[in-house]
């Protein structure tokens, strides 16, 4: 605690002092542009990894970055999502899993949790779709590789859950909401973002290096509530006309994931 | 999004590059010392305000830094608390409210939320003890002042709720857990910590300026399950022998809160 | 039934006849001073053991004298507590466990209840903090001794739960409510009351033998929401000024519990 | 509190001393014959009014002697009923309402409770069948008379609810359980018991004056789950053969209720 309390003093004398105007302004209200949903894991600092300033990220954190489907729980997730979309008019949501996730490891040995950590056990029920999908489709993987797949698929599972909320469903229908699937890799300090065209997690920032694409997130088609709006490497997920997404292979040099990794992640979606 | 994605690149090339060893180490596991429970509000960055490093804070964030009583919900809060205490062996919990909290404003106009934001409305049930206490005891306050009181009392309400969790109750009994009540004031960049002896929120860091007290959190009294362990200004809430807490008035120059603020926080009890 | 019906006649011709005025008076309303929460066990008669008259005790009875945390159930406990505090303005609550409690025995063999008595099994969830605390701290006890510890700790657990109710929290804050932890020992016909200073259950009546202390329950410390008001052996838990409680060892001859019993109840905390 | 604590001492020195053998015996276990469900009202002392000894009555008490239907709540009522029937093998249940019941008064002004006592408001949902029946069938009554009808009908409502519990249903089917509807009248000190043949609440003890009938509760017919087993004045509710109950008017001089009262109570059942 002493360290933290020294930190408070340090923060006040350095960061706060240098940015007093910002704090004055923030005290009048927040206008965050992104709802960032991630794990409670101590190794994640959303503001640090995105270099986002104060006031930019509205944050939900729980074990496993899990979002129970609408109506399934009466915990804080639903209320906080509703507040973000309805009261703050946030139009972008990032669901961010991460490597070495303890909750996802728990999903691999669920039975042992029943007695030891009953609340965690019950909570992982809302990642059961992940567990089942991986069990049915990736049975030949194990260990670290299996964990990576679980982590990657779970973010997609949670986005499916997220889509069941009334406010989310309505905003998606209006084309006023984009949802992104990210995975933070602790060992490389990198984010991989899901690319629905490629059905793979890819490095989003490569794109910005090579091109200065307009980042405006164009409206998804009217029926977009049946299509997930993931982070696109090219920052242009769908055309405004409501047409199908165009393949973007040529200007996306996918060098990040190994072919094996690609193949693995691909498999989950390839069944579609 | 473009800004965030640029931020990712920046983070990788600057912070990550400068701390590769840390990340390598973190990839092998986390060992956070503190569970930090705070609001989703975008103006709060727990790591920034405490200057805590990666790996130090295990974080729960939801609208209003609310912890439903054990058994009252099946959301992520209980599971994440259980994981923090049981799996990570965390021994210090900070519940941190903040000024200008939108959820607490909602508590002041609960009826209007029923239709507009039903999930938020239902979620605020777990702050009902706050609403009731403030209604019964601070009816002569209004506006900003009333909001401040609600925020301050709500942190204490949530600590009452926290104490009903089996893992919490057991660890408190063993004297292996300390719980601290904090309020982050956006406009001053300061934390006020609840001092149970003074029954007031005070600046914790003053203490460290004037004395170099060993920060080891000594054991709470025998059967600590009847005493809450709040953040003490002197960082030594109770003596290790299990004796009663000693008054610390002499070496605590209470200059932070204005007399009016003090009087206000006091008033609730002063009517006795 | 015949016996009971004969009893009704007997009651009418003896007790009722001798106290007609009392009944006339009671028919105009009740003004009980104490909410007495105890087990359904047939061996407990709250009015008999306290020699309280009709109209004095408002009584909640269920298996295990359990009070689920606020919001955790929609059973009668919360409503009855609310009615007692809000409508009847009761200012003293006794939570009274008892020796040989069948529900607490159930807590020791929870698994076997799942199939045989599913409602009892689920109900005992609200004593899970007791089970966990005892499992973690008293693992070297068994049989009758273990049961005694469970019974004693459970009363304290239920008081933690009780404190999460809005009406309770507000009244505690105002210093208008005192909560007492009792255990009724069937074999000796005695009540042991929890003494928070001694962290032990002691005989309350010894006190009254040796001193004629004003029984007025003085105000708890300011912000009593951080201090539980247990039954004090000396009937004067805290000084009215809001100062810290005074030790009362000198005038409390602790002769009731055997050293072994004392040691046992102490041990949970002694490991610190 | 001083009074209660003096009472404890008194109880120990008088009643306990005179009955030490009984207490010794009780410490080995309980074998109550009756589950007595009544209101928390301080003016009711089940053991006093029935002159039942310690160990005879297993008692549930909540506001309004309400038993939510099976599955409707997760409070203590269901678990305690299950324990009584399954673990203690109790074969007789008395649901005992009483005159001047505050909870039933609440049923007459439900809307005003929503804000003031929300838990009580929600709890009275399980007496909604009473409220509706009375509203639909007794609209021409008001004040005290209406309250009496509500109290009388509510006991029957709660018995309907009681019959939904698996253990109750099974035991009724086996003819091993009898359920009695009582009303305790504070002003007269008398119990009225529901007589299903007469469809009226009557004085049960009159019967025992005039005859020495075998009290054995004979098995109800196989389909007894569609017939409530109320207290019969003649202590012989149904014949073992499964025939319909015989009218018993000749040896039951119904002098207690006025014809108007009879008519009123009759009406509720006359619709059958």
Please give a structural write-up.
Four copies of one chain form a homotetramer. Chain A has 272 residues and is α/β, with parallel strands linked by helices. The first copy, chain A, has a single domain, classed as Beta-carbonic Anhydrase, Chain A, CATH 3.40.1050.10. Chain A contains twelve helices and six strands. The first copy, chain A, has helices at residues 2-18, 20-26, 46-50, 76-87, 102-107, 110-116, 118-123, 128-137, 143-162, 166-173, 205-210, 259-270; strands spanning 34-39, 57-62, 92-98, 178-185, 190-195, 200-202. Chain A has a six-stranded mixed beta sheet. In chain A, strand 5 (190-195) and strand 6 form a beta hairpin. Chain A is globular, with a radius of gyration of 19 Å. The first copy, chain A, starts with a helix and ends with a helix. The model of chain A is unreliable at 207-272 (pLDDT under 50). Chains A, B, C, D: Keywords: Bacterial microcompartment, Carbon dioxide fixation, Carboxysome, Lyase, Metal-binding, Zinc. Chains A, B, C, D: Its cofactor is Zn(2+). Chains A, B, C, D: Reversible hydration of carbon dioxide.
Q: What's the CATH C level of chain A?
A: Alpha Beta
Tell me the CATH topology of chain A: Beta-carbonic Anhydrase, Chain A
Most extensive interface, residues per chain? A-B, 94 and 94 residues
> Could you say which structural class the secondary elements and strand pairing of chain A correspond to?
alpha/beta
CATH architecture of chain A: 3-Layer(aba) Sandwich
Global geometry of chain A: globular
Subcellular location (chains A, B, C, D): Carboxysome
Cofactor (chains A, B, C, D): Zn(2+)
InterPro entries (chains A, B, C, D): Beta_CA_cladeB, Carbonic_anhydrase, Carbonic_anhydrase_CS, Carbonic_anhydrase_sf
Organism (chains A, B, C, D): Nostoc punctiforme (strain ATCC 29133 / PCC 73102)
């Amino acid at each position: 605690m002493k360290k933290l309390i020294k930190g408070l003093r340090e923060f006040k004398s350095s960061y706060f002092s240098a940015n007093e105007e910002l704090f004055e302004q923030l005290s009048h209200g927040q206008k965050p542009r992104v709802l960032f949903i991630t794990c409670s894991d101590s190794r994640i600092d959303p503001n640090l990894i995105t270099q986002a300033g104060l006031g930019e990220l509205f944050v939900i954190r729980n074990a496993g970055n899990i979002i129970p489907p609408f109506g399934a729980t009466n915990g804080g997730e639903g209320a906080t999502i509703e507040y973000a979309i309805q009261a703050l008019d946030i139009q972008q949501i990032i669901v961010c899993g991460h490597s070495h996730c303890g909750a996802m490891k728990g999903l691999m040995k669920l039975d042992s949790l029943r007695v030891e950590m009953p609340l965690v056990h019950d909570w992982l029920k809302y990642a059961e779709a992940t567990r089942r999908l991986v069990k049915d489709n990736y049975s030949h993987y194990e260990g670290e590789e299996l964990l990576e797949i679980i982590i990657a698929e779970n973010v997609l599972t949670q986005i499916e859950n997220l889509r069941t909320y009334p406010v989310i469903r309505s905003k998606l229908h209006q084309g006023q909401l984009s949802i992104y699937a990210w995975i933070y890799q602790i060992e490389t300090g990198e984010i991989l973002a899901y690319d629905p065209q490629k059905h793979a997690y890819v490095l989003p920032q490569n794109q910005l290096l090579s091109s200065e694409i307009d980042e405006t997130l164009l409206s998804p088609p009217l029926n977009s509530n049946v299509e997930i709006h993931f982070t696109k490497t090219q920052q242009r997920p769908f055309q405004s006309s409501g047409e199908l997404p165009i393949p973007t292979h040529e200007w996306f040099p996918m060098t990040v994931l190994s072919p094996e990794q690609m193949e693995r992640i691909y498999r989950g979606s390839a069944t579609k």
